[in-house]
Amino acid sequence: MRGRGLTSAAGAVWWRNVHTFFTNPAFLLPGLLFPLFFFTAFAGGLSRIQNVPGFDFPPGYTTWVYGFVLMQASAFGGVFTGFSVARDYEGGFARRLMLGAARRSGLILGYVMAGMTRAAFTVTVVTAVALISGMEIHGSALDLIGLYALAAAVNAAAGLFAVGVAMRFRTMQAGPAMQTPAFLALFLSPVWVPFALLTGWVKSVASVNPMTAFLDAERGFLSGAPDKVALAFGAVALLLALFAVFAVRGLHSAEQAA
Amino acid sequence: MSSPLAIQVGNLARRSIVRTLRQPAMVVPSLVFPLLLLAVNASGLNSATRLPGFPTDSYLTFALAIAFVQGALFAAMSAGNNMADDVETGFLSRLSLTPLRRLALLMGQLAGVMALGLIQALIFLLVGWIAGADFATGVGGALLIVVLVLLTSLAFGGLGAFLALRTGSGEAVQGMFPLMFASLFLSSQALPRELIQIDWFRTVATYNPVSYLLEGVRALMIKGWEAQALELAFGCAAAIAVVTLTASALALKVRMVRT
Questions:
Q1: Is the model's pLDDT at B1 over the cut of 50?
Q2: Out of A158, A166, B63, B181, which could bridge A85 as a Cys pair, Cβ 3.0 to 4.6 Å?
């Protein structure tokens, strides 16, 4: 009975958010255009970087950039979920939802599932564009399962974080608090060149940034030479656990405020 | 009796400068984001200097040009927002009842964005100097960079003003952000044009005037007094300024008639 309450609340929130996303270009386009733009700008403008001594990635620079854009689309797909939560609170819908939900934790699940659906759509489009642009994938079918499983887990972790922030602040003005950590985590990592070719303070930060492990693992799956898989999945599992607690406590904060 | 043009411009410029610099939300991001991008690029892409043909062994020096041009490009947003605010609040309508000249109004409104451009340029020069960037042309070159940044701020500020006057909407001005973003990233911002490997991207960067603005700054910082690079940079900035300011003046004429 409790499980049914959870799934019905989650399903209702998921369907509402997915419907809004796919029927409103103002929500659909930004999430789609920015990964595509970064893919175009980096794969097109920086491909010569693969000729730097020490840059060894056989599938080529387009595939290298795809690894980054996949992470970007996944992480920001989760972050945009927080925007949906904040918008629902600003409009008063979330308060009505909390009154009607049999199990309120189902709301968190529904928002995270909606974020995963949005990210899946964006990743599908970006992958199609990358393949048309000549991206080479040297990994096996099993590697690809690992690739997209890790992307989905990162998306869920980012979604839980953003939902936690949104439920605490309950306003769109909290947008920077959701976006900035994701943006910094992405860009303070080996975005353009391998970790060994980074220099200065970015290298120091990247050495402790979990995004470095995610990117290394993603690119390992793409090149058919999996690398840091246990570290990446371990780190994302830890983040999922931490951010799940963060989101549930955010829900309690919203309940008390209501 | 109509005031002399200089007094009209001066009064409006003072208002525009004070208004712009009093808004931390306008000043802080325009300084922080270019510096953040500079810090990330200088460290993350330093290995690009090992590419054969790369013009300098310091990516910081190469990337500093991006901060100057990025700051000036985003001046369009500041100018547009201020102008749109004046349209939305009716300030422009009230001004249209006075004998104020349109040229004075336009130049005065853009003074704030020029002041912001000046502050940005001086801070970026200071940060670059402290961080160890090269300035091949010395103090004279640094001053010329400031002049180029001001001209570029005026040029793109004119674009923001034009959009604000045409639409009367701050949201429409915000819609320019992706255009500014794309014009910066689809240029020779990350690598010199001759090192861009993908043909279509190199072609886009070649037709993109932002590439020449960047290359003008880079010439002064890396190579020295290169006449062709400077002519192209100042020529592009001046041409954009003429087009956008003319368009803004025409849009202002229509807006004043409407009100």
A1: no
A2: A166
Say which residues have a Cβ less than 8 Å from residue B98's Cβ, sequence separation at least 6.
none
Mean pLDDT of chain A: 91
Does the structure show a pLDDT above 90 at A225? yes
Residues B158, B245: Cα–Cα separation, whole Å = 5
- Which residue of B33, B36, B43 is the best one to mutate when testing the A interface, meaning the one whose CB has the most A CBs within 10 A? B43
Q: Which residue of A has its CA nearest to B58?
A: A199
For range B14-41, the mean pLDDT: 84
Task: Give the number of C-alpha atoms closer than 13 A to the C-alpha of residue A95, restricted to the C-beta side.
Answer: 9
What tokens were used for B72?
């000036």
* From B39, B50, B201, residue closest to A44, measured CB to CB: B201
Say if residues B97 and B136 touch (Cβ distance below 8 Å): no
CA of B131 to nearest chain A CA: how many angstroms apart?
Answer: 12
Interface-testing mutation among B57, B181, B183, B198, with chain A (most A C-beta atoms within 10 A): B198
Decide if B58 contacts B225 (C-beta within 8 A): no
- Compute the nearest-CA separation of B191 from chain A (Å): 7
Q: Return all residues near A220 (Cβ < 8 A) that are at least 6 apart.
A: A143, A226, A227, A228, A229
ipTM confidence score? 0.77
Q: Residues B156-202: pLDDT tens digits?
A: 999 999 989 998 877 777 777 778 888 999 999 999 999 999 999 99
* Residue (of A143, A140, A130) closest to A64 by Cα position: A130
* A148 reaches B (C-beta below 8 A): no
The residue assigned the tokens 């320019």 is B176
Cβ–Cβ < 8 Å for B229, B236: no
Cα–Cα dist B175/B80, whole Å: 11
Distance from CA of A2 to the nearest CA of B (A): 45
Strands (E), chain A: none
CA dist., res. A72 & res. A67, Å (int):
9
What is d(CA A151, CA A157) in angstroms, rounded to the nearest whole number?
10
DSSP chain B: -PPPHHHHHHHHHHHHHHHHHT-HHHHHHHHHHHHHHHHHHHHHSGGGGGSTT-S-S-HHHHHHHHHHHHHHHTHHHHHHHHHHHHHHHTHHHHHTTS---HHHHHHHHHHHHHHHHHHHHHHHHHHHHHHT---TTHHHHHHHHHHHHHHHHHHHHHHHHHHHHHH--HHHHHTTHHHHHHHHHTSTTSS-GGG--SHHHHHHHHH-HHHHHHHHHHIIIII---HHHHHHHHHHHHHHHHHHHHHHHHHHHHHHHH-
pLDDT at A101: 73
What per-residue confidence (pLDDT) applies to B214? 97
Per-domain residue ranges for chain B?
Answer: 5-258
How much is the pLDDT for A50? Answer: 93
